[in-house]
Protein 1
Amino acid sequence: MPRVLVAVAVLAIFVYGLVDVIRTDKHLTRGISKTAWIVVMVVLPVVGAALWFIIGRPRGSRPAPQSYSHTTAPDDDPDFLRNLEIRRRNQAEAERLKKLKEELQAKELKANGGASGSGTAEGKGKPNGNHRGGNHPEESHHPETDAHGTDEVK
């Protein structure tokens, strides 16, 4: 049983040392190059690991934890959720303003009651004989068109 424990301890130290050599930046190794340390670790597992921990390992610095910049799901990203709520509010506000504008235009149209020359955008597209080109039949079907028959609202 003690032989098994010694073998497991040696194997654990060897594997930990080899992984530590591999993860260390090649510019931070001391003594010899990183490739040479790997060769020493493989050829002399116990001695190589001991030498690595005593001589080769960089002092005073641990291997920096690697930061993984993986994408997160949209429902896990607080910035996405915040922006989603802002977009939702802006869209609702735009719809509300559009509805109010339509209501206002309908009220102005009703208040004008077809009076010509009132100066509103709705009155300009109506055929009243005051524009160039005379009356066009398509203008009577589409009151929102301008004097030239386009759908442009002024």
Protein 2
Amino acid sequence: MRKNSLKSTMINSEVMKAVSEIIRGEVKDPRVAPMTSVTDAEVTTDLKYATIYVSVLGDDEQSKKTLAGLKSSSGFIRKELARRLNLRNTPELKFVLDESLAYGMKMDKLIDEVIKKDEKGNE
């Protein structure tokens, strides 16, 4: 199975959707923030490992707590994933904090500041 094949893309999408639903509805760890979203999932071609990218609305401390809660709940999430998806192997889950949304918001803010300075300079 090639890395960008249709099958690989579909598996990544289904794993992302299922993990998102499990985190939202079934993980009871108090460290996991209620505003946690799964932004992407990358499953290896042999279906043994999956990297799950999560974004947390909150500060750095909240993000660290959520990541720790997800890591400790990974066995439960993996078991639920096996129950929901019919895969040959249920991948071992690795959770990674996705900084792209925060980076995008920061860049948007910087662009707005530059535009405001430019407008003031043109007056």
Protein 3
Amino acid sequence: MATQATAQRRFSFLQIAITLQTLTIFLQAVSAGLLLTSSYGETLHGVGARVMYGASMLYVLAAVLAWKPGGGSPRPVWHASGFLVLASVQVVLGIAHIPSVHLPLGVLMFGLSVLALARR
């Protein structure tokens, strides 16, 4: 019984981490629009990038915690690690001001995050 409750808690933590990641990526799209139309958009987008990166790291942590103790499939860890790699590339592209790749990658990340959320 205790093991099932622990597994349920881990599942919930993983679900929360994916939801948070998806939400922060969506908010980055909103702040990107503000970046084009307001003076505070750049600040918001910069802060949002840090929060989104943190959410991606949290997703990796949640995936490892859900996998390791229970001995389940490592697939969520690979997915979360892939998101962290994409987030890292996204940050580098944003700092380098390469919107021709930065924007489509953001859309791809949002779509993949929604897909990961739907699978949970």
Protein 4
Amino acid sequence: MGEWWTLLILHDAFDGYTRFDQFQQSLGISTSMLTARLKTLVADGLLERRPYRTNPVRHEYVLTESGRSLRPVIVALAAWGNQHLPPEERTMILVDAQTGEEAEPVVVDRHTGRDLDDSEAFVFTAGPAAGPAMRARYAELERRRREAGAEG
């Protein structure tokens, strides 16, 4: 996900683009770069490559379930970008399809509905697959939080 073209291709896929020429025309990306990014997205399981014509063979690139689950991430990134721009400089905005009213995306905890922006209320910790270095990192961060809490 770290490469800019990847995000732009996924954004276009969310807008319904599936064909190589659609991505290329929309993004102005070189053939070689688009080919490489699409191969990576397919290999990573975010897009599925499917034939849509047999003679000559042509393929389309369709979002997988895993790919579709990235939409909230793309929406959040776009919202973050728009938050830091004056309204007249925004190149796209998220709107309600029925009312046309601009949406204001936020990331919340599914269980409590609380906003996840508060980095003191919601913190990362080592997960089940974390190695020793990751576990040590988060143990140290937790120790610092407790010390800071005891002082405050």
